[in-house]
Amino acid sequence: MAEYDMQETTLAQGTGEMTVRYPRMRLYGRLDTDAFLRQVASHTTFSPAELRAAVQLLASGLADTLAQGYSVHLDGLGSFTPTLGLRPGAEPETGTPGETRRNATSICVDGIAFKPDRQLVRLTDASCRLKRTAVKARRSSTRYTPDQRLQLARQYLAQHAEMSLICYCALTGLLKDKASRELRRWEQSPHETGIRALGRGPAKRWTAADIHTEG
Fold it and tell me: How far apart are CA 14 and CA 25, in angstroms?
């Protein structure tokens, strides 16, 4: 039986914010490939080794097809779509006249977006039996105001080249969800907040930006 807790999140509402709670499954851990294949093989006539070979063949086929510019949909599993990003050290285009445009050598596949098939969601839901966890849910700290958290981030970046999401959570006491949303707000106005984003996805980090001063 799986467990769930109620996770707090903050939503924008007019000129203020509203705190709501939503259910989140509490994970017991992560199965590695061998453990998962042994579990699947126990319900079939295939051996774990045969299933591993099939998985490796599927992964190789997916990589080849996605690399050719296709999205792949597998019935009962979901859709796979390649996403692109800039290689480390490549600066994004700004549209400024005369700037050097990014060419293919500075662009790479930096992720595979996955959208589960509705059948997979329905099967998972049909097999899932839930109970509320007895473990108390963690909440973001209210020790600092948003302005104080911004100052903490600026002070950190004055001494370090970059800041990760985990680092910002440690600085401010925020949980990842709220910390990520707040950092996205900071990065939208880099000349005011002094913070800009680098990269995307799990490798995303933040660095200092010039603060615009009117005089």
Answer: 30
Q: How far is CA 173 from CA 47, 72, 155, 199, in A?
A: 47, 40, 16, 24
How far apart are the C-alpha atoms of 102 and 96, rounded to whole Å? 13
Entry pTM: 0.61
Torsion sign across C-alpha atoms 56, 60, 61, 67: positive
pLDDT digits (tens, 9 = 90+) for 1-22: 899 888 777 666 666 667 788 8
Rounded Cα distance, 189 and 212, in Å: 10
Q: Looking at the domain covering 146-208, what would its CATH class be? A: mainly alpha
Kindly state the tokens that stand for 44: 């079939």
Domain residue spans in the chain? 146-208
Burial degree of 194 (CB within 10 A; 0-12, 13-18, 19+)? buried
The candidate with the shortest Cα–Cα distance to 34, out of 44, 43, 21, 47, is 47
